[in-house]
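Researcher: I'd like a candidate sequence for this fold, 369 residues long. If you have to choose between options at a position, lean toward the conservative one.
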């Protein structure tokens, strides 16, 4: 997608063919900065400290982290150590484990001398596949948007209003995004879309990242506080909700950034379609009950008590929001039950949020397949 008009991915191999370059998303929206990863430890830090974030991009970064590890030491011991350390960086996003399993399966049978080159090739394939998957999600989501736009046009509307939560655009993936891929496809198709952007406290991925990339891409949007979504829906100002997900269960429960569940409840109460866009690797076929089985990451309370922003003099600084001595807790995600989800938009099509719905698109996952 575009950064000041220049096509850009979120992760790529550096010019020397050894290091890996990423967009340091902790510097956005006020500064575009590229960070270089040279070691396993660099990749760990980039994932854990959210230089990169979003389930698909976390997976791609972990794959390149494995490549960086075996470039330095291609032994079985180092391979296992890299897997163990990377899989522990973020507990909720299932793409992380999927990508590492894929890398391990490709590298384990090879003699150590062949592993470094093979690791870079495999990581590049994972990244390229993510781009293709997300483009397909965009096309399938575009069909949903087209149908709704025809209905709204017939009612006299001059634009289609979508609401999204957190950041599930190209900054959360290698390119295109998941929830925002249909928005970008709609823009290219000439459909007048407007996006309500939840700020998404406490890290403000909506206000800082979604708004940033929509701005770069020229998509009309408006940033709102997290608690405004229900009000907008009550007054007919939201035609469609689309969010992403870090893990979806085999039964269609959806784990996404904290606050997603509340948006789904408001959408259900107001008759607003609530869709979730996801790539196949985000489905965890081993669990059914997301509320009971998905581990919910608890992040540093300082993300709640402090806020970073740009001061009037141009300096980016952090300020404390809460009184001294007031504790905070910082749950990173919540689970939206399948009953609140209108449909799941995947690279293979759109289906109901249910086991039968998912199996209709992924029949190879049937027990008798």
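Model: Candidate sequence:
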């Amino acid at each position: 997608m575009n950064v000041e008009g220049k096509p850009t991915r979120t992760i790529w191999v550096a010019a020397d063919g050894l290091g890996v370059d990423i967009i340091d998303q902790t510097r956005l929206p006020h500064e575009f900065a590229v960070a270089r990863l040279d070691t396993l430890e660099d990749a760990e830090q980039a994932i854990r400290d959210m230089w990169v974030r979003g389930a698909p991009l976390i997976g791609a970064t972990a794959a390149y982290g494995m490549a960086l590890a075996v470039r330095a030491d291609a032994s079985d011991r180092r391979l296992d150590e890299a897997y163990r350390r990377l899989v522990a960086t973020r507990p909720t996003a299932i793409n992380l484990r999927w990508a590492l399993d894929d890398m391990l399966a490709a590298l384990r049978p090879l003699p150590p001398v062949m592993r470094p080159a093979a690791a870079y090739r495999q990581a590049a394939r994972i990244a390229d596949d993510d781009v293709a998957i997300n483009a397909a999600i965009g096309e399938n989501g575009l069909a949903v948007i087209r149908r709704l736009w025809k209905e709204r046009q017939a009612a006299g509307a001059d634009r289609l209003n979508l609401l999204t939560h957190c950041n599930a655009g190209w900054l959360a993936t290698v390119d295109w995004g998941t929830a925002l891929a249909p928005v970008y496809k709609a823009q290219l198709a000439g459909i007048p879309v407007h996006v309500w952007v939840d700020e998404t406290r406490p890290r403000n991925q909506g206000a800082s990242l979604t708004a940033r990339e929509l701005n770069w891409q020229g998509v009309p949007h408006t940033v709102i506080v997290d608690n405004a979504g229900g009000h907008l829906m009550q007054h007919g100002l939201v035609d469609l909700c689309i969010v992403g997900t870090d893990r979806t269960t085999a039964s269609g429960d959806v784990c996404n950034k904290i606050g997603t569940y509340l948006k789904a409840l408001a959408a259900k109460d107001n008759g607003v379609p609530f869709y979730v866009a996801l790539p196949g690797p985000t489905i965890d076929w081993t669990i059914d009950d997301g509320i009971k089985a998905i581990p919910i990451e608890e992040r540093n309370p300082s993300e709640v008590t402090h806020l970073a922003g740009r001061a009037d003099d141009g300096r980016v600084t952090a300020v404390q929001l809460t009184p001294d001595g007031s504790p905070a807790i910082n749950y990173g995600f919540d689970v939206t039950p399948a009953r609140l989800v209108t449909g799941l938009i995947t690279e293979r099509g759109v289906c109901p949020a249910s086991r039968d719905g998912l199996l209709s698109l992924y029949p190879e996952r049937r027990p008798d397949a």
